[in-house]
């Protein structure tokens, strides 16, 4: 039995939905929310021996990079921060609980804003942006997912080294 041919519109809708699922859920790894769940506040700024970053620095880096990708994707006049200093905080720990929560809130808000770009059928996933070097919305969605997953893995490793990971 042959499968009915899917139109380009159907394929685009399926791809958009898959990308949104990729950004919202985690099928093959832990999501960010699970990686930081029940993390004691006093461990947010601990840098284990021979590792370059604390969990706070990784969280803030995820925040900045995702924001950078979002702004690049929706604003042709946007200028990215200088690399690498604009992407990594020198502060090993958050200044207070409010700074921690604000970073987590921004990650969620910016992810939601990027998902809104993906969900907009007027935005072509494959069309290179008028600015940049050929980047498109599909590439930027995959970049956010890949980048975040990589650093979530590092957060979990740090938690394991600090004996603060469940299981």
TrEMBL record:
InterPro entries: DinB-like (IPR024775), DinB/YfiT-like (IPR034660). Residues 30-155 form the DinB-like domain. This is DinB family protein. It comes from Spirosoma aureum. It holds the Pfam family DinB_2.
């Amino acid at each position: 039995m042959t499968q009915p041919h899917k139109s380009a519109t159907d394929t685009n809708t399926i791809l958009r939905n898959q990308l949104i699922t990729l950004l919202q859920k985690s099928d093959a790894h832990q999501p960010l929310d699970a990686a930081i769940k029940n993390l004691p506040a006093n461990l947010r700024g601990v840098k284990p021996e021979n590792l370059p970053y604390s969990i706070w620095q990784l969280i803030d880096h995820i925040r900045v990079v995702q924001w950078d990708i979002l702004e690049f994707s929706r604003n042709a006049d946007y200028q990215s921060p200088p690399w690498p200093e604009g992407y990594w905080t020198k502060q090993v720990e958050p200044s207070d609980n409010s700074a921690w929560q604000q970073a987590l809130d921004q990650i969620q808000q910016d992810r939601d804003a990027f998902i809104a770009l993906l969900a907009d059928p007027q935005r072509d996933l494959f069309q290179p942006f008028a600015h940049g070097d050929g980047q498109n919305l599909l590439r930027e969605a995959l970049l956010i997912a890949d980048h975040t997953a990589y650093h979530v893995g590092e957060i979990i490793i740090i938690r394991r080294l600090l004996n603060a990971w469940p299981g």
